Amino acid sequence: MTKPNRDLDEFESQTRETIEQTLNYLHTASLLVGQLETQIVETGRSLQVLSQLIESFIAQQRQQGNSDSTD
Hints:
The protein is mainly α.
């Protein structure tokens, strides 16, 4: 009669371990998502700065081209 109890205890133990492991995976995934969101925001800011630098450079080049042609 102890065998059914042992099987039930083993099942309970395995179930708890699996649930705990799955929760750990979920927690890790949520942390990674948070890091990814931060990297996406930082990349967006970097692209905005780069875009502004390129626009400024192009405007300067056009001004130099215009002043060279008027000289």
